[in-house]
Amino acid sequence: MAPTRRPGLDPRTKIVLVVLCSAVVMGSGGLRFVPAVLVLGTTLAVWERSWVRAVGLPAVAVALWVLGWVLPLWWPNLLTATTAIACAYLIRFAAAIGLGMHLIATTSPTLLAAGLRAWRVPRAVSVTLAVMLRVFPVVASESAAVLDAMRLRGLVGARGLARHPVLGIERFTVPMIAASLRATEDLSAATILRGLGSHRRPTAMVPPRFGVPDLILAVAVAILAAAAVWMPQVLA
Known about the structure:
transmembrane; mainly alpha; ECF_transporter_component; Energy-coupling factor transporter transmembrane component T
């Protein structure tokens, strides 16, 4: 039987990439590196064939650039100046979130746990992060199911929410809490079956290893960083 091939980047590479790029763009002088991080996030989305993210990330960045840099030149006033200040920070968050979305979309909890174990991260931290990655999709699907049920009963609408905001929040929150408790029990049983509470070190079926994609990404990051330093600053 042929061994299972590990596609994509090593999870440790993606974690380092997200932390490093987030720290750079959110730091002093981080606007210089925002275009490079946006290009990197869009390229990763295209590589993974996530077309929604590949189109949405540049669209959000262009919209923030128009509101924060172009509009104040055409219509200078207090409102556009305040908007420019807000967009100068929002575009940094957009660049960092683009890479974070790639990490979440392409890294399963099993791969994340294997990567953290290879780093000798304490079990309490690795298990918590792996469970968090499983909880987010469950919460999203449960909230969508609750909203669909409310919509079928005619309980969702701007008019009803405006008239009875507390009642509308209650109709959504109470079923959501019950669904989350059921999902939590299922996840707890799944973690016990997977042996996450065991003191033995589990063996990964596909152990994380650095490969050619990680080397290509490192070279691309170095080229983009050099271009951001030596080329004229776009977001000034």
